[in-house]
Amino acid sequence: MTNGKPTSAQSRRRFLKTAAGAATLAASALHAPTILAQPSKVKVGFLLPYTGTYAQLGKAITDAFKLHVDEHGGRLAGRAIEYVQVDSEANPAKATDNTNRLVNLEKVDVIVGPVHSGVAVAMVRVTRESGTLTIDPNAGAGVVTGALCAPNVFRTSFSNWQPSYPMGKVLAERGMKKAVTLTWKYAAGEEAIGGFVENFKAHGGSIVKDLWVPFPKVEFQSLLTEIASIKPDAVFVFFAGGGAVKFVKDYAAAGLRNSVPLFGSGFLTDGTLKAQGDAAQGLETTLHYGDSLILPKNLAFREMYAKAAGREADVYAVQGYDAAQLLRIGLEAANGDVKAQKKMIGAMESAEIDSPRGKFTLSKAHNPIQDIYLRKVVGMENKVEGVAHKALADPATGCKMA
Ligand code: BEZ
User: What pLDDT shows up at residue 27?
Assistant: First the structure.
């Protein structure tokens, strides 16, 4: 240093030091862990009953949906999944508010629900307006894939008409001519009975009495007394969840099992066998699933579900699992971009879903075209006796897809 100025040697040394420092910095930047922006999570809103007579149904759907996502490491098409759960209470009066909460407050990407047909009608009125992708994993209201059908609304379960319709033919062909029907007085009951009656009459049967009970009431005594006095060839019912447990037990306790044969859509004995015990033994029903189906997909699913949920799989679990499969198929087609709805919908519409119930496709109205099985309760199983109707499609009355 002379007169405060660096000598040329000092300048050269300082330059080399600075250059080396810059090179080290550049090298370490190269080796620093790269922090990439994580894609945001896909938000799935469950609108399902977690209390009341359908609580077990909502729980099975939720557990099985999550099981499929967990099978894929918690991601579908590379996107992590976040859940919001709203208890629908199977209450149609609260359904509009509950759906609006998920759509407008929680801003979910997808709604999965509901179980109850009355809730479904209110929910779909909101989501077809908002355009929110909707997957119905149970509620069978005909209008969901009928007059209210929409490009963004899909169903992985059934229409209420579907599982009951084949039983009309089965009973008529057994020579049963006079039947009594009994159900809860709401859309699911009315449409389920409607399906049975349509096919029973078409094959020569007649209905001697339609009996009703308000949903979700379970006071059956006076109705059972009436059935005993009518003595029809058969009784056909729609009940599900806690109500089905109570009805099957009351029917047996009234001593009717040996005098008036009881039949129903399979919800009567699905997810209920443990609670129904001996009262359910031998009951025959029709449904799009049977515990004993010997399909690799069903065997694997039942084992995985039992391990994950701590209870046996049922039709509701199957429908929830398939709702997650359908969402995965849509997301994969859109490379995980949940906003690319056209791509998602196109893939979902043409999907063949490898379900524990057997492979199925969707109708133009987005409802499963599926085999309906005749089942019989044997021990703790709904054992498949045969196919009551092959590849049954709902008529989708009034559906005009935009
Ligand atoms: C319904 O309300 O659509 C329904 C509920 C339980 C089982 C089947 C259908």
Answer: 43
